[in-house]
Structures are given as structure tokens and as C-alpha cells.
Amino acid sequence: MRYIINAPKRINTTVDLPASKSISNRALIINALAGNDILPDNLSDCDDTDVILKALGEMPDTIDIKAAGTAMRFMTAYLAVTPGEHVLTGTERMKRRPIRALVDALRYLGADITYEGAEGYPPLRIKGGRLGGGRLEMPGDISSQYISALLMIAPTLEDGLELKLTGKIISRPYIDLTLCMMRSFGADAEWTDVDTITVKPKPYERAKCFIENDWSAASYWYEALVLCNDPESEISLTGLTDGSRQGDSAVKYLFSMLGVRTTFGSRERGLPTTVTLKLVETKPPRMDYDFVNQPDLAQTFVVCCALSGIPFRFTGLTTLKIKETDRLEALKTEMRKLGFVLREAALGELSWNGETCPKADNPVINTYEDHRMAMAFAPAAAVFPGLRIDNPQVVSKSYPRFWDDLRRAGFTITEED
Q: What amino acid positions are annotated as catalytic residues?
């Protein structure tokens, strides 16, 4: 199945954004470790959260987390400290996504984990039990989900955990988000040096938790506003907070560089409110940015900048090669269909210097089983009327109502077999 998308000339809409899956997934794991039977409020209804919710509720012998990378990392650590034996598996793509760094770290702490297939990759057989903890070193430039997985189980370890991150530390806001949520459940966890996190062996407390809406999902509406390029357009987004711990809340600053003003309905810290987006300024001559702390925003900005005629150089993209797909290769391939030649001059770097190539006739964007490919390219219909998106249902991984929200905003979406 594919969708044919046409964008309106003007957008005036209010969007009820989905709850943050990053916060939801952390909240579910910590909530379970705290022994709390009451679920957090405003949980995400996306696929990634649903597989964790079902896994924790049913705890079958074989747990299939499908395409949810977060669930694979978080559940690996959770099962390692939970009595019982389970096999943790997923899709064929998941079986090609590395997990050795996390498994090695858990084994060092005493976990009983074996590979059921290829070394270093799922599926995993995990025999859970109480672990000792202690001091551990890990590279700081691996997926922050490995680090967050270890941190969340740390209060349950007999000796707690002192985690030293070596080299460059990437996605630090996601680590800080994890620590903040742990502390909200009573954990004693903090940075004790620029590269070291210390978690005391203090059990979690039961706590009520409300999930903020998703700043990552907001990024596609910022993009739609820019590509619509209409000064009278206005988009309101619900359930966001000023001073959010979500790393992707930086989207409001990044899009200010592209001429979008973000106005908060309330500036009370921690209180969810509605933000309103308006175009107010001209676009910059180029954009250079290191996405090391917000890698999930890269696809949005690649599409948005190129289609706005803004050359760019984006770095800090190393982890994109091990996401749902190799996002760097996917971006280069799909952008070429639209007439843009992207270059990957160095590891973790993607740039566009204005180079173009012939456009494909009636281009069809391949989504590569990657939700963010579908959502980042959908607003491109404002520049390429009738743009086709293949396998659009992949958005259910993080934003199940995405296409419905686009229709309510005035986008015309028709289905094609």
C-alpha cells in the first residue's frame, strides 16, 4: 500500500500530539521495577510502547518486541534482574541490530545472557536474577539506550552502579531524561563527574507519573509550516512543556533558525500547555549543526532544508546507521529521487551543497520500515504535489494518528495499491 499526498496552500490547525514514547517506555520499566500496579497517565499508544506494556503484563517465555529498538534494549536489562527465563526476539531487521555492548556490560555485572543466533545480535536467552553491580566503563558514543537501560536497573543492584562513560558522550539529553525520571521514583542517581554517573542501591518508590506529549512528533509540524511557506498559516500543538527534559524539545530553537516562532500558552515550568507556531522571518543562507544530542531530528531537517533551498552540513549522525534502517543511506537514496544529491564526506556526517540531479518521474518514497522516513517526507508534498509514500502504516511505531492529523490539517491523502 502507498499514499498519494497533496498539501494545502495554508495550514490552520490544532494538533493533539501523541504522548512521548521516550518517556512512556522509561516510565513503564521504572514503574515495573518499583512494583507499581498503577500505570502512568497519558501513556503513548504507539507500537514501541505497546510491546513493552504487553511484555511486562504477560511475561511469556518468548517475548517478541517486533521492530522496537528501545524495547529490545530496555527489556534486556529488565529481564536480567527479574527472576525467570525468557527469550527476547524481534523482526528480521532487529536481529541485525547490534546489542553486544549492552550484553557485555550486563554479563560483567553478573547477568546470565546467551545469544540464540548470531553473536552480538538478538534473539537473546536471559535468565534473570539479582545482580551485584559495582563499577563499569562503557564508551560514551554508543546508543544512549544501552546506557539508559543499565541506569534504570541500577537501583536494584546490590552495590548500585558507578558508570564511567569514555570518549565522546552522545545523546546526553536522553541520559539526563532517564536520570530525571529515576529520581521522580525516589532513586539516588546523579552525575558525580563530567563522565561518571553514580546510582546508589536504593529501591524505587511507587509514584504517580504523567507523560508529556512528544516533541519529536512536533518536528514534522514545524517542517510542514516551513515547507508550506505561508505567513498566514498557524499550527497549535498540545501537551508540551517549557523546559522539557526531552532532548528533541530543542526543535523549537532549531526551527527558529528557519524562521518559525514558538509561543507557549503558559510558561509555568513542567505544566503541559499548547504551543503555537508561526512563520516570522526569512530563511538563512545555510545551516550547520551537530545533531549528536538530537539524532532523531536529522531526517526532518535534511528534507526541510534541501526543499527550502538551504545548503547544510549535519554531523553527529553516527547512530543513524543502526536505527530501523541505515538512515543516512536511506536519505541519500530518497532525496535523489526528488533531485537532491547528498554527500556523506565522513562518518556520521551528511551534507548538501546545492548539487542537484534529474528528478524521478512520479517519485515514490520508500520508508524502509522506518516511521521517521514516512513522517519526515510527508510534508514534502507541499513542494512535490502528489508525492507518494510507500508502506505509510510504519508511522504506528511512534505516531499512529499521524495521517489522520494531516487530513484534519487539510492534506489530501489517497490510497493506492
A: 296
